[in-house]
TrEMBL record:
The lineage of its organism: Bacteria, Pseudomonadati, Pseudomonadota, Betaproteobacteria, Burkholderiales. GO terms for cellular component: cytosol. PANTHER family: FOLATE SYNTHESIS PROTEINS, FOLIC ACID SYNTHESIS PROTEIN FOL1. Residues 1-253 form the Pterin-binding domain. Pathway: Cofactor biosynthesis; tetrahydrofolate biosynthesis; 7,8-dihydrofolate from 2-amino-4-hydroxy-6-hydroxymethyl-7,8-dihydropteridine diphosphate and 4-aminobenzoate: step 1/2. It catalyses: (7,8-dihydropterin-6-yl)methyl diphosphate + 4-aminobenzoate = 7,8-dihydropteroate + diphosphate. One of its GO terms (biological process) is tetrahydrofolate biosynthetic process. GO terms for molecular function: dihydropteroate synthase activity; metal ion binding. Its EC number is 2.5.1.15. Its cofactor is Mg(2+). It comes from Polynucleobacter brandtiae. This is dihydropteroate synthase. CDD domains: DHPS.
């Protein structure tokens, strides 16, 4: 899954792909490099990020979705707003990726309304508190057990509503209300999330945990991002969400060849 942020303030590539032309060019590069899914986001959820209005988010993402809807790879909308989900699904996106795990008002209904005509994938992420406060002294009794319990409850809620389990993906949410120790614990025991019976996404690309370990600035974290991707894949991740598509695809080709 390649990250395509149409935002001015995302932590790694904010402002690079705000115009539709720049976003399309980046998507074409990712497609050429072997991406399977393009995840389009119009609002940053980095620690401390300020929310944007619905209209601002729609103005950022809908033209890009419209331009890419026949690009030949799956499209995902990265949003927690129900109306953005509805509008993106009307344009034919294949997946909704929600950092709030469909806990915002109307989000579950937006998914259920769409599913009769066009079933979509759903990514449910764990986040402690909200983007403004999530990194203020995050605390867990047991980070693995707590995150698993939350994700299982959210997924089960959708299954009860009639959503097929194989359309649900869970994401433990690296960096979303977790300390460095929590993040390392989750990566070390990543296979535990697969035990819930859903596909699991790993999103660690360029994150601050890698900067804390290496001392590298955001754009200098390609090597640890790839290492984290391989560790996650080796522990059961089915989707790897990244900024650096070419490098990660190449590394995963070697990993897959060894598995075979």
């Amino acid at each position: 899954m390649g990250i395509l942020n149409t935002t001015p303030d995302s932590f790694s590539d904010g402002g690079k792909f705000r115009s539709v032309t720049d976003a399309i060019a980046q998507a074409e590069r990712m497609i050429a490099n072997g991406v399977d899914i393009i995840d389009i986001g119009g609002e940053s959820t980095r620690p401390g990020a300020e929310p944007v209005s619905l209209q601002e988010e729609l103005s950022r993402v809908l033209p890009v979705i419209e331009a890419l809807k026949n690009c030949g790879v799956a499209l995902s909308i990265d949003t927690y707003k129900a109306e953005t989900m509805r509008q993106a699904l009307k344009l034919g996106v294949d997946c909704v990726n929600d950092v709030w795990a469909l806990r915002q008002e109307g989000a579950v209904d937006a998914i259920l309304e769409n599913r009769a005509d066009q079933p979509c994938g759903i990514i449910l992420m764990h986040m402690q508190r909200d983007p403004q406060t999530m990194q203020f002294d995050p605390h867990y009794q047991d980070v693995i057990a707590d995150v698993k319990s939350f994700l299982n409850q959210r997924a089960a809620h959708l299954v009860e509503k009639g959503v097929a389990p194989d359309s649900i993906v869970i994401d433990p949410g690296f960096g979303f209300g977790k300390s460095l120790e929590h993040n390392l614990q989750m990566l070390a025991q990543f296979e535990q999330f697969s035990q819930l019976g859903y596909s699991v996404l790993a999103g660690i690309s360029r994150k601050s945990m890698l900067g804390k370990l290496t001392g590298r600035d955001t754009n200098e974290r390609v090597a640890p991002s790839i290492a984290a991707a391989i560790l996650a894949a080796d522990r059961g991740a089915r989707i790897i969400r990244v900024h650096d598509v070419q490098e990660t695809v190449d590394a995963l080709k070697l990993w897959e060849a060894v598995q075979d």
